């Protein structure tokens, strides 16, 4: 089970990197923190640039430190909440579902509220016809109530507004590190749906060490492609141009994965992933 959550954290980091609000601006960020312009890179014949790679490395270390500390803090807090673990898991599952819908852009649909009511009506019908039990029905209804409450309080609109935040700092290796730490906080609204889900999983770990490792793996998943982009910057520019047409699919698939994770948390079926891994 622990190995599964660690793997999920690493894959979540990669998914965060590929998200439409991160990947397109990575070239600008790498260029900014390294002081090497995109046009300059395109004119150079060499593929590897030491300055760009080291700047990217310090940037990754910066946000990794912050995310790892957040993971340690989340698991530390989680130890004090073990008595309410079941209730927290259900509410947290609703939050993860909300993040998944946000990531997939579902809140931008003009009929989202009507569709949400339709899902609840479907659950009620399944319960009345005996296809799902009372506990399952109430758990899923509670999760939808969390989504509805956050939607009515316009939390999703706040998240979308925060995507416009820009980060500025001086260019140097130390500056790249500092930008990385600011990135961890400033880009949270952008990768928040994924990060929030991983932080919740970290809070459910038995020890502070496990929570810290989970967020360290998330940082590694997010930082590894970033380092590769810095190492092969000129090739990465071409990759971004070609990958643009898949941004919509990344949003939908990533959102569905988060919603699935949220449902499994609500139903206390997260161990199902472990069963897949062992063939059970």
Automatic annotation (TrEMBL):
The protein depicted here goes by the name Cytochrome c biogenesis protein CcdA
Localization recorded for this chain is: Membrane
Please give the start and end residues of each transmembrane region.
Answer: 6-32, 52-76, 88-105, 136-153, 174-201, 213-239, 246-267
Q: Give the highest taxon in the source lineage.
A: Bacteria
Q: Which PANTHER family match?
A: CYTOCHROME C-TYPE BIOGENESIS PROTEIN HI_1454-RELATED
Q: Which family does it belong to?
A: Belongs to the DsbD family.
The UniProt keyword set, sorted, is: Cytochrome c-type biogenesis, Membrane, Transmembrane, Transmembrane helix
Q: Does the keyword DNA-binding apply?
A: no
């Amino acid at each position: 089970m622990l190995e599964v959550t660690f793997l999920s954290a690493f894959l979540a980091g990669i998914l965060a990197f590929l998200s439409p609000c991160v990947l397109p601006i990575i070239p600008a960020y790498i260029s900014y923190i390294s002081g090497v312009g995109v046009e300059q890179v395109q004119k150079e014949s060499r593929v590897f640039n030491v300055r760009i790679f080291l700047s990217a490395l310090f940037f990754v270390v910066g946000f990794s430190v912050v995310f790892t500390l957040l993971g340690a803090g989340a698991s530390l807090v989680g130890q004090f909440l073990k008595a309410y673990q079941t209730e927290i898991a259900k509410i947290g599952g609703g939050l993860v579902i909300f993040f998944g819908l946000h990531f997939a852009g579902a809140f931008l649909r003009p009929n989202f509220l009507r569709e949400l009511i339709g899902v609840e009506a479907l659950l009620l019908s399944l319960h009345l016809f005996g296809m799902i039990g009372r506990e399952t029905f109430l758990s899923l209804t509670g999760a939808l109530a969390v989504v509805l409450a956050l939607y009515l309080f316009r939390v999703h609109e706040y998240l979308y507004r925060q995507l416009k935040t820009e980060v500025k700092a001086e260019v140097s290796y130390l500056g790249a590190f500092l930008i990385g730490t600011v990135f961890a906080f400033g880009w949270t609204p952008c990768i928040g749906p994924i990060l929030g889900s991983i932080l919740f999983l970290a809070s459910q770990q038995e020890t502070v060490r496990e929570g810290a490792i989970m967020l360290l793996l998330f940082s590694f998943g997010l930082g590894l492609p970033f380092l590769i982009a810095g190492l092969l910057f000129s090739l990465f520019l071409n990759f971004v141009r070609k990958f643009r047409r898949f941004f919509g699919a990344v949003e939908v698939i990533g959102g569905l994965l988060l919603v699935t994770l949220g449902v499994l948390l609500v139903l206390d079926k997260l161990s199902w992933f472990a069963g897949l891994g062992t063939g059970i």
